[in-house]
Amino acid sequence: MTIAIPTTVERLLEARSTRRPMAPLSEADPDLTIELGYAIQDALRAELERRGERMIGWKLAFTSPAGQALTGVKEPAAGFLLSSQYASGAEVPLSGFAGLGVEAEVALRLRTKLVGPGVTAATAALAVEGAVAALELPDFLFSGTPRAADFIANSIHARAIVLGSPLTPLRGLDLALEGVVYEHNGEIVGTHTAAEVMGNPLNALAWLANHLETRGLALKPGDIVISGAISKILRPKAGDTIRARFTRLGSVGIKVVA
Questions:
Q1: How many structural domains is the chain composed of?
Q2: Distance of CA 109 to the CA centre of its chain
């Protein structure tokens, strides 16, 4: 059975607006494919834009071997970012999420258009204005055991991002060696390097540009791209603080409130 895209989009929109978890789409359609997941995602993005939402860029997921093994895929995945954005130090309301998660990432801002195919890390770097410390705040809407295609259909649960400052130019900056100390309530819960994202976040950016071309899309000047999780996902409760301290990109943090 193949699920109807318009009906599926309405279900996703309702879950997003009510913050009530929904059953994975693959429960109704066990044959749900990655390709259909992206078709649903494209229709979801178009409907959100029709309703007045503004897209600010893209996110990557499954950018590590462990993430791919966990979801049963052999390559990364992409989702769109809407304009829900916090500055570092913001108070983030737990009530605004069905299932708040937090993970540390490197965010890249595009200076020029970047279009596949054939984009490499080197050519991708030329299109980047700079990098900044970031936290992603995905909202886990699915109950049960969702599959990769479920995540893709819902833009990999993209909900909001938190950006640090200032924007750091890439010249002289080796993103692969960028270190991250990840803290939860002031305690270190992980130390990482950005090389955990496909060896270098620029590899993830190149993959994204080439992938988007297959969907008739391209990265535009001003787009924000979060390149994939460097840290584990934290599931905070009200009153918790989370901070990621980067080697050269500075720090970014939030406090979760009720």
A1: 1
A2: 14
Q: Is the pTM of this model over 0.85?
A: yes
Strand partners, 122: none
Task: Tell me if the bond preceding 117 is cis, omega within 30° of 0.
Answer: yes
CB 44 within 8 A of CB 153: yes
Distance separating alpha carbons of residues 87 and 217, to the nearest angstrom? 28
pLDDT digits (tens, 9 = 90+) for 121-144: 999 999 999 999 999 999 999 999
- Residues sharing a CB contact under 8 Å with residue 11, sequence separation 6 or more, in sequence order: 22
Sign of the C-alpha dihedral, residues 190, 195, 196, 202? positive
Residues in the chain, how many? 258
**H runs (alpha helix) in the chain:** 5-18, 25-28, 34-50, 65-71, 121-126, 148-153, 201-214
**Token code pair at residue 243:** 């901070």
Q: What is the CATH number of the domain that holds 30?
A: 3.90.850.10
Range of the structural domain that residue 12 is part of: 5-257
Percent of the residues in the chain that have a pLDDT greater than 90, as a whole number: 94
**pLDDT of 201-223, one tens digit each?**
999 999 999 999 999 999 999 99
